[in-house]
Amino acid sequence: MKLVKAIIKPFKLEEVKEALAEIGIEGMTVTEVKGFGRQKGHTEIYRGSEYTVDFLPKVMVDIAVADDIVAKTVETIAKAAKTGKIGDGKVFVLPIDEVVRIRTDEKGDGAL
């Protein structure tokens, strides 16, 4: 089992969600986050004063998947989230040692 963690632009969330549904991904956790990478933020003017916005709004999507669909999941997210511009985001894949469905006590892949 793996945890696929994607950090994407907020306006791409719906496209990513729909694309994942098409390949059979039924659940995910979505968190609003802020951060920056190569973008390094940007400058804005508010009430006549210029200030730097270092942390840009992003969305983090966490999906626990079986090993056999990790590559398809990552590919689907990358394709749906891509705009071709800086700040499109990143996808991370992390190992999961154990999963327990609280309601039924199922463990492992069956709990996904």
Automatic annotation (TrEMBL):
Pfam families: P-II. The modification O-UMP-tyrosine is found at Y51. It comes from the Bacteria. One of its GO terms (cellular component) is cytosol. Signal peptide: none annotated. GO terms for biological process: regulation of nitrogen utilization. Keywords: Nucleotide-binding, Phosphoprotein, Transcription, Transcription regulation. GO terms for molecular function: ATP binding; enzyme regulator activity. SUPFAM superfamilies: GlnB-like (SSF54913). Belongs to the P(II) protein family. PANTHER family: NITROGEN REGULATORY PROTEIN P-II (PTHR30115), NITROGEN REGULATORY PROTEIN P-II HOMOLOG (PTHR30115:SF11). Homotrimer. This is P-II family nitrogen regulator.
